[in-house]
Amino acid sequence: MDSILNAAKSWLSDFFDADVKTEIQNLIDNDPDGLKDSFYKSMEFGTGGMRGIMGVGTNRINKYTLGKSTQGLSNYLKKVYAGEEIKVVIAYDCRHNSDTLAKTVANVLSANSIKVFLFSELRTTPELSFSVRHLNCHAGIVLTASHNPPEYNGYKVYWTDGGQIVPPQDGEIIGEIDKLAYEDINFEANADLIEYIDKDVDEAFMSASVANGSFNAKGKDDFKIVFTSLHGTSITAIPEVLKRAGYKNVTIIEEQAKPDGNFPTVKSPNPEEPEALAMAIKKAEEIGADMVIGTDPDSDRLGIAVRNLEGEMELLNGNQTMVMMTKFLLQKRKEKGMEGNEFIASTIVSTPMMSPLAKAYGVDYKIVLTGFKWIAKMIKDFPEQYFVGGGEESFGFMVGDFVRDKDAVTATLLACEIASDAKAKGSSFYKELIQCYVDYGFYKEKLISMTKKGISGAEEIKQMMVDYRENPIKEIDGSKIEWIHDYDSSVAKNMITGETETIDIPKSNVLIYTTEDGTRMAARPSGTEPKIKFYFSVNAELGNAGDFEKVRKQLDQKVDRIVSELKLG
């Protein structure tokens, strides 16, 4: 406790603002638990940035923790791009303090003689990614905590290609940050170096979004969409993009249209949660809409609900939408004429269904670690190849390479194009998905996410991963474990033959079990939340569309048995 108290007292020096010192003294005098949680560690600038609860202290998002990271980033940029006019673009979302924190970040950059383009109001994360290259910047920063609860905020850093930072930049930037004391932060802004941006960049981004996400789908006049921004940033882009692409029947959920960091109408502003889209689905039933789309606060994830075979609105998961979008893009590319250099991409915890899909179209399939920064890295590492599209199970998708992060704006348009076109041809988004199961195999996925908060929670998650490594599961639902892929040790081991293979992607704390019948279970601690996530995938042949319900029930039962067997339910 002495080290925590000493860390807190160091924030009582004259360098820190008076209100910060008052709050810290109150923690010291009256709230030992709050003091401990605020100072027991320093909030780490991880491989993509920072995300955490806002407040005072080293383990919180505030002016000083963000200032220190920005000072370290400034030092790194000046070292790498010595002699150049360095430029950085900054965007922020609807969260509490995002605008003031963005201004703080801009101040520190400008104090270090770096040119800053700062959005005048909240904007989407995909527009920030687009803007890095559009404005010829060396880096980009977005203030967002994605879909986390209201008390959170965060800070993500993008590199010159518009993708989030990856090795070696991430480690080198962290090295610069770790050298600094808080007193090394230069907060003295150079106002001449801060330029506010908005409409010109908006126009360029929306035009590019329409160009990449529109395929002249038929039936737009007869296609009804219900859209909700869940109080986030997508209200600044998606309605206009849909309008420009020719969609006239778009109903916006007005109660959720105003940006609001409290997210007053939902428990969580996460389109992965069915509850988040409940208001939009209710409206869709009232007006007979064909599709519901909702996006998270910074507009990189999207949730989609479409009418199933019974005519009811059904929320699809990220794997299903990813497969449908990728297949549609591949088909359009094929109609245009494949050049033989195409590739699609997804992540190690996403559906294995992407592999047979790629094989069917004769394109390269790259599997990367969780996170779109790794897909963006593939685009950068293989410039001779053409990136068609790709995504991950967590409700994110990237259409082409004009944005180098998950992009709910363009993906929303693409989803509408697929569904509108299918309806005009007498089919539906859902029926086309079932046809994919017939063509490529019926893969069914489930995610279980366990929250473990605080110091004890972090230890519990750590121990769970140790147990899965040291006492591996022998079988799942009666099928023997064939392979264990340990991405932390970079070793894949065949548990039947004993052979081993080297995993040729960067290390990550992920463990994947695969059985003889193709069932898969992945365990992965979250990098941005106090959670451990378990990803399940089961599969079966679907001989014809008429057997869909029967086979789906069998796969659902199999997943339920596995969850029960592993005591994760």
UniProtKB/TrEMBL annotation:
GO terms for molecular function: magnesium ion binding; phosphopentomutase activity. It comes from the Bacteria. Gene3D superfamilies: Alpha-D-Glucose-1,6-Bisphosphate, subunit A, domain 3 (3.40.120.10), Alpha-D-phosphohexomutase, C-terminal domain (3.30.310.50). GO terms for biological process: carbohydrate metabolic process; purine ribonucleoside salvage. Pfam families: PGM_PMM_I (PF02878), PGM_PMM_II (PF02879), PGM_PMM_III (PF02880). Belongs to the phosphohexose mutase family. PANTHER family: PHOSPHOGLUCOMUTASE 2B-RELATED, PHOSPHOMANNOMUTASE 45A. This is Phospho-sugar mutase. It comes from Maribacter luteus. The lineage of its organism: Bacteria, Pseudomonadati, Bacteroidota, Flavobacteriia, Flavobacteriales.
